[in-house]
Design goal:
The chain is built from eleven helices and 16 strands. By secondary structure, the chain is α/β, with parallel strands linked by helices. The protein has two domains: about 15-270, TIM Barrel, CATH 3.20.20; about 280-350, Type Iii Antifreeze Protein Isoform Hplc 12 (Alpha-Beta Complex), CATH 3.90.1210. Helix 1 runs parallel beside helix 10 (about 255-270), helix 6 packs parallel to helix 7 (about 155-170) and helix 9 packs parallel to helix 10 (about 255-270). The two termini are about 55 Å apart. The relative contact order is 0.11.
Length: about 350
């Protein structure tokens, strides 16, 4: 699979995991708060901040949805960011050096974001089965080479397959990133995290996979990185105690910083070359075993399993030469000099 370019970032391959701080609507409709959040996310080490573009009268039947925080229509109206406000956020992100990402919730919002010049799109799990919207996104993606991150929560495998097929048909699959997701806020039962789906998504659809994570901590995000995810998305807030739709499940600044730091440490820890480091060699020198005189050995005496034994440290002839696989190079040879008990044998102690 080819790496995917997203602004100054690259997704996939050996590139660092992309960390997305999902601001959503936790700015509570305030531009100054949103800018402060962007700045804090950047300071914590996030690569991307993500917003949501809502057109409440277009995307839903007014006053028809009551969620855990109340009437969704009224919540969205109260916290609404206009396209002009989103443009201001894009400009601020560019100014401080962090990528801007946004989720549209209807085809009209897709058009607005495209006109604003976004570099990528992110869809929520609720939009997975909105195939006309994905068709529009796929066409834009193919034409303008824009990545599309697609969340797969609360969906069936068949529905994921149907969505992916849209991108195949529109020749945009190379720009597709599937986001493993559990649409619970938060998922209190860790068996619902289904991190095993990460590798299944990779195997079947041959696309880069990310993790959109709603847990209250960072453990599943860390595990997702080990399993091969290339994008980690976590909700972000300045204060979990704020009033709002999802503040209780959002990471605060220090938690986001811990997430970033943990992921960066995990990435460098995932090396797959078996080699002895300089630091290991120091330990190996004393922890490994050498061939040692098990008793006093006289000059000219034959070396046998009866007068030799393995002991630490590992600074002499390696203990493997007492095993039958290598022993022909050592056993029955004669001692070049007297070898008192506990002498660590060197090759120059032996008559070759």
């Amino acid at each position: 699979m080819k790496e995917i370019k997203f602004g100054k970032l690259k997704i996939g391959g050996r590139n660092p995991v992309i960390i997305v701080a999902e601001i959503a609507d936790s700015h509570n409709g305030s531009v100054s708060t949103a800018k402060k959040m962007i700045k804090e996310a950047k300071k914590a080490g996030a690569d991307v901040v993500k917003f949501q573009l809502h057109l409440p009268d277009v995307e839903m039947v007014p006053n028809s949805i009551k969620m855990w925080s109340g009437n969704l229509y009224k919540i969205l109206k109260k916290n609404l960011f206009t396209p002009e406000m989103h443009k201001a956020m894009m400009n601020y992100c560019k100014k401080i050096g962090i990528e801007y990402l946004c989720t549209p919730f209807c085809p009209e919002a897709v058009d607005i974001l495209d006109e604003l010049g976004v570099k990528a799109f992110k869809t929520g799990s609720g939009e997975l089965t909105n195939l006309p919207m994905h068709r529009k996104l796929a066409k834009i993606s193919a034409l303008k080479n824009k990545p599309v991150l697609v969340s797969t929560g609360m969906s069936t495998w068949k529905e994921v397959r149907e969505a992916v097929k849209i991108y195949q048909e529109e020749r945009a699959k190379e720009n597709l990133i599937l986001m493993n997701c559990t649409s619970e806020y938060p998922p209190n039962d860790y068996t619902h995290a289904n991190l095993g789906l990460i590798q299944k998504l990779q195997k079947e659809f041959r696309v880069w996979v990310g993790q959109s994570d709603h847990t209250l901590d960072n453990y599943t995000a860390f595990a997702a990185v080990v399993l091969g995810t290339k994008v980690i998305e976590k909700h972000f807030t300045l204060d979990r105690r704020q009033k709002g739709p999802d503040h209780a499940i959002y990471l605060e600044s220090q938690m986001l910083k811990d997430l970033v730091g943990g992921i960066r440490k995990i990435e460098v820890a995932l090396g797959d070359e078996k080699q002895i480091s300089k630091e290991e060699q120091v330990v190996r020198n004393w922890a490994a075993h050498s061939v040692v005189a098990g008793r006093d050995i006289k000059k000219g005496e034959k070396l046998t399993l009866q007068n030799l034994m393995p002991k630490r440290p590992g600074s002499g002839i390696p203990a493997k030469f007492l095993d039958k696989k290598y022993s022909s190079k050592l056993l029955v040879k004669k001692a070049r000099c007297d070898l008192p008990k506990n002498t660590i044998l060197k090759w120059n102690d032996i008559m070759i």
